[in-house]
């Protein structure tokens, strides 16, 4: 059971990391392209 808990948290961390990476890339793209909503 403990192994499944570790597996679950590891998968969650991976998902969060992917989301943060995607968000950061999108933000950089908007800032560098200079045509953001601001």
From TrEMBL:
Top-level taxon of the source organism: Bacteria
Protein name listed in UniProt: Uncharacterized protein
